[in-house]
Amino acid sequence: MAAADGDVSPVATAWAAAVDGSWRLPLCNATQFPDMYNCSRPETLPTSPIFVHIYGVISPAVILFTIVTNILVSAVLLRPSMRSATTAMRGISRRHRMMRSATNMILVAMAQSDLLTGLWPLPCFFYFYTLQHAVDYVPHAWCFVYHCLTDYLPTICHTASIWLTVALAVHRCAADSPVLI
Q: In angstroms, rounded to a whole number, what is the distance separating the alpha carbons of residues 114 and 89?
């Protein structure tokens, strides 16, 4: 239905406020614009200096640190066990045991899940905020990708990490409690 001449629709008011610059619309806000799932209207990302500094400088640095540390954690937990010094000095060749216990496998899964939690939004943060493309309108091709990489996939991986923490707690509780065995 069309609004009367004197009536101003909330959508028009929202777009006027967004164009005015007083606030920014989120990408593809399906609750505000239910018929616009395809980002055909021009929308922008928040471009205040604090957003650009946090998402363009601090977040990529923290994410890269997280990626490196989680790779190191996985490498340590998946490496073969070290031979004892006396066995190595005697020249006795023993089969290496892998450090593959149930606890270590849960810890590796947590490390990989945390790695992916940071890795998914990194391309968007780098493209839009580090390279300063956030001041432009969001390209049509980036709309769905942006939502997937910054909202959906990190949430899934973070939730998986939380449930792996719960699984580790249950596993340790069951291992330490003779009643539950």
A: 39
